[in-house]
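[User] I wish I could look at a protein chain and see how it folds. I have put the entry right below:
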Amino acid sequence: MSAAPLARVADRDEDFAKLGVQRGPVEPWEDGMRTSGGPGSYEWWYFDSHLDDGSSLVITFYTKWLLNPKSPEAPMVQVDLDRPGQPKRQLFVHATPAEFRASTTQCDVRIKDCTFRGDLHTYRIQVVGEGLTVDAELVGQVPSWRQATGVTYFGAHDEHTFAWLPSVPQGRVTATITVPGAAPETLTGIGYHDHNWGDVAMSKLLNHWYWGRAQAGPYSVIAAYLYAEKAYGHAELPQILIAKDGQIVADQSSKVRLVLEDVFTDAHSGKPVANRVIYEYRQDPQVRYRVIFQRSQTLLDQKFADTVTGIKHALARLARVDGAYLRFSGTVTVEKYDGDRLVETASDPGIWELMYLGHVE
């Protein structure tokens, strides 16, 4: 008898029954709060957009800092705004537990005066902070999706959970941005929203991952490749969604292979970074897709030890906390092959990330 897998996607009938999730379309409650918010859990709602003028806007609502789920609630909103020819802007809005609320029936989250609300199709995200105000609308163009239940279990007996729900794989964005001393500016572009939660520090489960999403011509793509920690057999956990003209054409993780090219060591984080991240998807013996993320610049290069100060920073250094988060922009290309013949290709700007939670092995 073979040993039980140490990390697996929850795709069995009993998994759906246990989690109360139906096979088929995602339901609005799935984007509502899925944890208690108390010690031992974390949760976040994420939005990113690539705007028509070349700007990128990323907003995340956290119940607490994801690396410290044992803590009580410590709600926070983070905004990262990159605009061509302008200094990067980063905003943090911290709140008390009393200033946080979230519905369990749909996405309806409030942190202080900031809100993130939607129904799997249309979302309104409002952030009010010192030096920056954002009012964004996201309207879905590709239906909500999840791989099986959306949950990955870790441990021979499914002891721990990491979950991912792409509530809006791709949508149209309208964002009004206000900074001091300037008139409000309204920008449009393409965006994305997902929802994550879990019950133990991600650094205990996952060593690192690549994740990205993009629109390329008629194609919409979400692609992720997760590497489990040593305790879970260094399991590789691919996830992919390819849609064309709003219809899903490929989403089976067992058919994915990851290729990393032109790898270098990032000077700031010390992590290996691939200039070209390629997902190869073989749909059948004849048809295959290639999704190529070609890096042009690094938008964010953040070492976890640098996100804390004072004695906590010194303790993080002593504890060899060397995790890092890097976000990139560049060109994403989708290629479709019939046998060895390239029959379709499309390219557009995209955003993707490399998250390193553990040590480089």
Notes: The longest strand covers residues 160-178. The mean pLDDT is 90. The radius of gyration is 20 Å. The domain at 202-361 is CATH 2.40.370.10 (AttH-like fold).
